[in-house]
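Exam revision sheet. Question 4 asks you to relate a sequence to its structure. Input first:
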Amino acid sequence: ARDRRARPRPTRARLPLAAPRALFRESRHRRFFRASPSVRPPPLVHRRASATMVASRKKAQGKTRVVEPSAKQKKLNATVQAICDRFEARADPSCELSPKEKFDAAQRDLEKLVDAIGEFLGRKLHFGRILLPEDAEWTESGLKEKFNVIIGHFETDGIGLRGNLRKLRGDGKRLVSDVWDWFFAHIGDTPAAGRARAPSFVMSNIVPWPARHDAGRIILKGVGTRERKLIEDLIVEALNACGTPERAGGFGRPAREWMAKHCPADMPAERALWPELDGDVHTKSVHMCLATSIGSTRWLTERFIRGMADLFVHFGGPAGTFDTLLAKFKEDGRLLEITPEMAAWFSERIKEGQQYWKVTGQSKNAPGVGTRGLKKRKKAARAKKVMETHSKRTAPEKAATRKKMLATL
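Answer key, structure tokens:
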């Protein structure tokens, strides 16, 4: 193995000149290489290849490992594909189903999709149907009587609605849901008259299953993009089957974004939802929970109250609703009056937060949010701290530090 004729001694040009001696172990390995110059040193230690490089190399070599989906994923994929096929068949112009049949088919497919998603996520999801007006009659173009549509985010779990958003309390006067009761109580001349209009509305949520009142966007955690799009398509299909409403609207940011996506006000020709709707779709209102018992400790600005009052007037509420709500919240001590100084202060804080995010990659109010360049941020913070410490020293302190360093050397 050590025959010099078989393995000639390497020349100086063959040695890795750039390799530091720290790469070799200090013990017997180093002595072995010194004593046996015919043995070549180990190759240079390169940095670890990235995942992209490894994947590209394996793909080029034909060794890419295909991850087999689980049984639950296969079952969900099969259900979603079957629902997509039926949805595309109904969307074909040659489909001869009536509006009522399309509405029922879309609701059945949506219920199957919700059940499949719940089984995949490992929890029971109670499906919430689109509520039609009571005693609704169908024609060849949709619902027979004129109707209005109001859209929310999702059903609040724990209050026992089970899909019936207009469910009444035991006294038969108020609705069980404070959010929906607040809405209907302000779209009539009196609260009783407004609540009496609830059975004539088409009511829907953009998320067809209940969750906690503070779930927010995490309600769709674990749901894939394909499933989310299919949920939206089935809801749009069911609402279009009902026909064109007289008035339509929604409250809350998620409903506003959803309506802007499917029913944009500035592009009627691009609408997937109600392309023949002449009136405007009102979505500028904040969520009703800001005014109910759920958010009873929160302050409301005049802009929030204005958007809420405009939604009520849009659906036939009294013209003086804004003044009534303004006086009510002012009396309750929940009106936040923003002065010009406060507005300027808020504007400066927002600009600082945006600049902080650009530089550090994380939120200023939530330091734990964002991990972009964590090591770089820590290194920059240490360097900044050192610079600040040095900049604050006086001339005698700097001279003493220099003298101490020279003495050490």
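Marking note for examiners. Confidence is low (pLDDT under 50) at residues 12-19, 22-26.
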